[in-house]
Amino acid sequence: MDTKQAWKDSLEIIKISVSPAIFSTWFLQTHLSSLKDLGERVTAEVGCPTSFAKNTIESRYFGLVQDSLIKVLGKNCDLIFAVKENPDKIKHTDGVVSPLFTEEKEDEGFLERLQRARIRPSFTFENFAVSSSNQMAHAAAQAVSQSLGSAYNPLFIWGGVGVGKTHLMVSVGNHTLKINPNKKVLFCTGEDFTNDIVEGIRNKTTQAFRNKYRRLDLLLIDDIQFIAGKDTVQEEFFHTFNAVTSAGGQIILTSDRPPSEISKLEERLRSRFEAGLIVDVAPPDFELRCAITQIKAKEKGLDITSDQAQMIAANIESARKIEGILTRLLTEVHIKKSPITNDSIESALGKDSDAGAQIVRKSPQEVTDAVSKYYQVGKRLILGESRARPIARPRQILMYLLRTQLGIPLEEVGRLVGGRDHTTVMHAVEKVTQLATNDVQIREDILKIKQTI
Amino acid sequence: MKFQILQENLSKAVGVASRFASTKAQLPILGNILLSTKKSKVYVSSTNLEISASVQVGAKIEEEGEISIPAKVISELVSNLPKETIFLSAEKEQLKISTTGFSSKILGINSSDFPKIPTSINQEKAVKLSQEALSAALSQVLFATSVDETRPILTGVLFLFSSNSLSLIATDGFRLSRKIITFDIKKEDVGKVIIPKGVLGEIVRVDSSVGEILMLREDREKQVIFGMGNTILTSRLLEGEYPDFEKIIPKSSIVKVLLDKEEFLRAIKLASIFARESANIVKIKVLEDSVRVSAESGSAGSQEAKVDAKVDLGGGEYTEPFEIAFNYKFLEDFLHSVTGEEVEMRFSGVSSAGVFLDPKDSSYLHLIMPVKIQD
């Protein structure tokens, strides 16, 4: 039987026996929280709103409640009283929302705006690590974000792949939208821009294109070098540029090289780019990579010690690759359900070199020459038998480089380096990986040798 | 029942208890006070079914027993009697009161209808709190509780116990107050409870000479008991899920402003004259070394006040000054609750909650949701 109906019927009976005041004070807010049918008997739990109600009903109206329930259910009845809020009443109130706690919705609005501006929400100043290699660019971007259109216009950021150009640029957009949601911001790549024009010309909607780009407060164009050599696009960009800047809007551009080196770039564009601030972002140094590793690990919810972060940073140069390694580690953690150890990192690093993502096409001979020249140790000595440290250390580094940079199999490395066993090579690689983590000197040595080859 | 008692003692006890007798209740017994005698003590109790109070006073008991009598009658009567010994005795459902040159018969009700009320607190299990700290903390959070009964959970204060601190949290959905009291709980962790503001308001009012407040939560009865000297207060607990307040406390800010409390309060008061007519909105514009408080109303006019402030824009200047709008009442409430001379405001955006702090008191945090303004 339905508990609600049963209780409603019982209350009707109780209502007759007690005064209206007593009924409304004690019984009106009660409910039947559970009804257990045990064959012969039924156990009913009566939920009362307060302990006063519970005590009063239990001590004064127990018999009345029991009798009426027996009449309704047609069975003998045991009663339990408990202080319980009527669940219907609680549910009823959940729908009411208040501004302070609807911030998520606010956030959604913010996300929506970011989406409209095609800005990745994860790229913010907060998670951008700064060190000497990108300090200048960071400072410039912050200055721009704080006074759009007047600090440096345009801001031109250039640098190699994976150094954080796009991150910086998008951070400005992110920051701008956060402070002032009404600003019109758009992020696109040089290619998007090109495609939009082509589309506009094809569909005869160039006016829509102009409305989209020329009324922006902040225009972010990634990889601007792609528009070089495309005359119509360059012309359209030139007008867009003028329209935006003359209306006080800000333009930020990124490229893989400085404007002076972008070939087939129109002179009037080049001079305009050069009128703003041109900053370069250098590849991240070791300390910055450590910081990046830690930031990314935190974002992924990966728990790594600072030693482990250093180990990854010491062996990997690009920030994207660091992300790749962390993703691999995360997958391992999820699949194997084991915490991250130095070994798992080493194996992830090793696998990476197996994959041969960045194998340098150099002959082992050239590498041997480079190492021998760098350390001023004769080739014969390096490939020889001596185990004195000044000779053994360069030899280990040579093996490390042959293994990680050229991707030569262990046994082959052994053969190349004076016919050594593959376990010796393994030891050498491991040892140098360790050393690179802890020893600045070794790290620099490796970096310089890499540069020579 | 028969006993002798000093007028002052009885008057005080009846005065406290009569506050909780509900005169408007349908059930006459709830408008009554229960007088009961046990051993050498008289217990004066009352309840409105949300809160109950029981005050214990010393007296010369001649005969044990109990009677319930209308709160209004007894409290008015006793408070006007001369300061000397009063003789009370109950016969059936009548209470006889006599003192020199005065005698009275009050018609009562059979005490068996009176709800059972806790008259003591288990000292062993209870948590001990400093009365001063608790009432100071309550006065900083109570004002932020909601008056809106459609969300009962927000009409209470969340008590969050951890190993060495107690956080009090109150919010009405537009603002939030959090105060942390640090102390050593020697008892086992009592987790979290949501206590209706009614009983907490009474705790703030309690005579400050008590020193210590005992607090005990009874899960089965869904009630909390406070022991303050001779007075035992109980209240039902609010059931339901308290909103996740940790989540909405902004982690970072882009603008920090430090200003003098009195000056700011004056500016807000001035602004409120016009704000009252336009949805209580006061605008705060953050300038280089000051904030501009302004308000306008279509019918009354407008005003603008400058308050000197230390402004931290996080390392840079904005070409457009940061402007945010609040309901002035919320600002006023906050400023009244601050004990220090300065206040700090932190903003992270025009549509996210502003953080209000007392730089001298890191345990106090207040959030206010801004009002959206259209350009």
First-last Cα distance of chain A: 85 Å
Count the domains of chain A. Answer: 4
| Mean pLDDT figure of chain A | 84
Got a strand count of chain B? 25
Going by CATH, the homologous superfamily of the largest domain in chain B would be: DNA Polymerase III, subunit A, domain 2
Under CATH, the topology of the largest domain in chain B can be stated as DNA Polymerase III, Chain A, domain 2
By CATH, the topology of the largest domain in chain A is Rossmann fold
Name the shape of chain A in a single word. flat
**SSE ordering of chain A:** HHEEHHEHHHEHEHHEHEHEHHHHHHHHHH
Oligomer: heterodimer
Q: Structural class, from secondary structure content of chain A?
A: alpha/beta
Structural class of chain B: alpha+beta
Percent strand of chain A equals: 5-15%
Word description of this protein:
The complex is a heterodimer of chains A (453) and B (375). With 453 residues, chain A is of the alpha/beta class. Chain A has four domains: 3-92, GMP Synthetase, Chain A, domain 3 (2-Layer Sandwich); 108-281, Rossmann fold (3-Layer(aba) Sandwich), CATH 3.40.50; 286-355, Helicase, Ruva Protein, domain 3, CATH 1.10.8; 364-452, Chromosomal Replication Initiator Protein Dnaa, Chain: A (Orthogonal Bundle), CATH 1.10.1750.10. Chain A has helices at 3-17, 20-27, 51-60, 62-73, 87-93, 103-116, 135-146, 165-179, 190-203, 206-214, 231-246, 267-275, 286-300, 306-315, 319-336, 342-355, 364-375, 379-383, 389-404, 410-416, 422-438, 440-452; strands at 31-38, 41-48, 76-83, 155-159, 185-189, 218-222, 250-255, 277-281. In chain A, helix 7 packs parallel to helix 8 (165-179), helix 13 crosses helix 14 and helix 20 packs across helix 21 (422-438). The model of chain A is unreliable at 353-357 (pLDDT under 50). Chain B has 375 residues and is of the alpha+beta class. Chain B has three domains: 2-113, DNA Polymerase III, subunit A, domain 2 (DNA Polymerase III, Chain A, domain 2), CATH 3.10.150.10; 127-245, DNA Polymerase III, subunit A, domain 2 (DNA Polymerase III, Chain A, domain 2), CATH 3.10.150; 249-368, DNA Polymerase III, Chain A, domain 2. Chain B has six helices and 25 strands. Chain B has helices at 7-18, 71-79, 131-141, 197-205, 261-275, 328-337, and strands at 2-6, 32-38, 41-47, 51-58, 60-63, 65-70, 85-91, 94-99, 102-107, 127-130, 156-161, 165-171, 175-182, 192-196, 212-218, 223-228, 231-236, 255-260, 281-286, 290-297, 301-312, 322-327, 342-347, 354-358, 361-368. A twelve-stranded antiparallel beta sheet of chain B has the order 14-11-12-13-25-24-23-18-21-20-19-22. An eight-stranded antiparallel beta sheet of chain B has the order 6-2-3-4-17-16-15-10. Chain B has a five-stranded antiparallel beta sheet with strand order 5-1-7-8-9. Chain B starts with a strand and ends in a 7-residue tail after the last strand. Chains A and B meet through helix 2, helix 3 and helix 7 of A and loops of B.
